[in-house]
Amino acid sequence: MLFEIKNQLLILDIQETAIRKTMILKTNLFKIKHTNLKPHMGCVLISEPFLNEIYFQRSVVLIIEYQKEGGMGLVLNKPAGIILNDLIEGLENVEEIPIYCGGPVRKDRLFYLHTLGDILPGSVALGDDLYMDGDFEILLNYIRNGNPVDGRIRFFLGYAGWEYQQLIDEIEEDAWIVAENKGIPVFESEGEQFWRKSLLTLDKRYHQWLNYPKEPYLN
To answer: Are 22 and 42 part of one and the same domain?
Structure first.
């Protein structure tokens, strides 16, 4: 019995040490002064390295709408594991087009980012030659005619949403860095590699984040 109690105390001590280590790491990490940018349409949110929520861990989120009522964004780098070809008729003979998880809200709603501009009537300009949505039938004809998709169009299911003060609070709590989307590899990468490339577009003081593990208490 005494042996079991000692074992339990040892386990608790290990857990407490791990938590303390995590807190120290995060305290040191967040001594970095954040950018002075405020969230706005067309900017990106880059998650801090220890954020472990399933949709947002090591994520980059493009803000597509931001008003006093709240904000909307698309998570850029989380593949959904499905392709547009399986959802839309007439795409059987074109190269596979992956779909990404835009966020946890309205996961039945398809969004698309592109660089086609006025080719798609109704597109919303987000800045830096980046556009959202537009005439879907014209887009499908563009794809079916063999025009390039890779590097020009990316599809998403769902979006991320915040109430106005909710996003402000998360930024003040150091969950996100606000950055302009210039240099962000919107169509070039996915997964953690996308997050890492996005960090490299920021000031060098943020590059140390590249060295942090997802679960620092395991080190």
So the answer is: no
Structural domains of the chain, count: 2
SS3 of 16, please? helix
In whole angstroms, how far apart are CA 110 and each of 22, 89, 159, 183, 204?
A: 38, 15, 9, 25, 36
Shared domain for 102 and 3, answered yes or no, is no
β-strand pairing of 44-47 with 176-179 = antiparallel
Structural domain boundaries enclosing 123: 37-214
Q: Is 58 left (phi over 0), alpha (psi -120 to 50) or beta?
A: left
Instruction: Report the alpha-carbon distance of residue 108 to residue 112 in Å, rounded.
Output: 13
107 SS3 class: strand
8: pLDDT strictly greater than 60: no
**Domain identity same for 153 and 57:** yes
Side chain identity, residue 50: F
How large is the average pLDDT for residues 11-33?
A: 44
Instruction: Please tell me whether residue 127 adopts helix, strand or coil conformation.
Output: strand
Q: Mean pLDDT across the stretch 84-89?
A: 95
Answer for the pair 110, 133: CB distance below 8 angstroms, yes or no. no
pLDDT, residue 27, reads 46
Q: Can you give the pTM of this predicted structure?
A: 0.82
The tokens describing 12, both together, are 């608790």
Pair (16, 81) in one structural domain = no
